[in-house]
Amino acid sequence: MTGEQQAAQVQQERAITALAPLYVPACPGAGKTHVIVSRHFALPSGTLRQGRALISFTRTARDQMAERCRAEGRPDLVGFPHFIGTMDAFIWDFLVCPYLAADRAWQLSDSWSAVRATVELDRKVPLDAFVFTFDPSTGVESIPEHALDRSTQRMLSGSKKPWRHWENEAKRVRNQLKTQGYLTCHESRVLAWQHLQKRPDDVLVPLRSRFSEIVVDEAQDCSTTEIAILDVLHTAGLKLTVVGDPDQMIYGWRDADPQALADFTAKFDTTVQLTGNRRSTPTICALAATLRTGARPPDVSVAGHHDNPPVLILPTAFSTGAKALHTSGVPTAMVFCEHANQIGIPATSCLLTARRRSTLPIPSSERGGNPITRLARAHQVIASGTADADKLDQACRVAASTLLAYWFPHSAGSVSTICKAHDLYVGTLLRKSYAFLAALPHPHPKWSSDVNAAMKNLPRPASAAPEGTRGYLRGAPSVPRRHHPQETGLRMDNVHQVKGDQADAVLLMLPEPGTATRWHRGDPAKDEELRIMYVAVTRARRLLGLAIREDETDQITALLTQFKISHNVIS
Prior knowledge:
Rossmann fold, seven-stranded mixed sheet, six-stranded parallel sheet, globular
């Protein structure tokens, strides 16, 4: 073991044993999951009312932590008095649900798309088209007009009613649904904050009694409201351990704010930094350091790779249809895979990623497949909990096509065409499709029976005319891994989807004009696009490639030369 590896191990051991309250800023590849679970293992077996809450932001991370406990022979650390779950589940189970009125049945949904509700003035707009925000510093809730999607903005642009009327009406409709027992995760977070403000003893005493520590993983994904909730718990004396990497904060659309996290973690007396990167080479660590805040030195590579290849710069001509051609005329992805293969990295160990999925060449396996397989892939997207807006829209359109084929068996064409023919609003159908997918169980060999039953029982448009079992899906779904391989085995997905993943070789597509200037002059603390690039490059273990616009190649190479980062331009 080298001296650097020993130092990284010492950091981990300190993070495992340090007393809470504790802040653990962890670089990519630092082994934070190992630290969190190891802290959990330190609890003695059979201890009553000394539980630990392990909070994550995805069901995948939740399941990984629980499985680690079982695999290590500690299934007692999964159930009561402990809690392993998502942030939304923790807030609902411990801060909201116990304090709701018992005079109605309460239902929690991810969004208002699960409820058929519209806001109506001089036209009808689905309630879930309005984005509710909450400012915990003032306790004021609002609906920013600029947060509307483009289709809703176009719809309201012709309205004779001013925006304030639409905002007030949306709040009225939402509040009426609340009185009927319907809530979304947004309302749940607001209620949690309000309960902590108005009845702190009722909420805090049970938490103190049950949990000796609350551990929050991926804290950079917290919204400002969630940070405010955690701040109240910390101030009240609950022992918190907060683990995260502010440089990987790429969920601004979820109201994540770097400054809010910085202000909160500054209150912790003990900070243990994890700077040993067990994933990437020194060259990749050095490049990643140019994409994060402050003039901090690169993280220490302790992965022990036998080589340290230079960063590959691939001048690329980007065009529509996700075509990205290297200056040689060969697809850039194939050029990268050939160079990876020269150092012993097969295409199956390569990952192609980009800011937007539309930039990536769509694998033939994803374009094809029978209807039940395509729907199963769409279900995977919804169930992931991390898909971006583009991928969610694509998944919902697959489900919408399935529903339309059942409701209108004699209609043909795109989703928009069929909706127009039957006077349906596409946005409403897509929201119904989201709810339809979310309610389905995970795919299994006889999944088609569940899908068909769900279609039959789903409320349908008044104009629908299904004919028996026509439009039903048949067969067993064939669902590949989350990142669908091409014929070469190359994996690909957008950056938001590969966060938390890694590969021996990673190619980042950078088609946006001005990327080089942004990289050189931008501030990652304020520019989420740079943080997205940071997440992408830190997925790489041995080899990193940058597909950059041809006219920006010289700027990128000058930047890497300035920071003494080894690189080769593949011309």
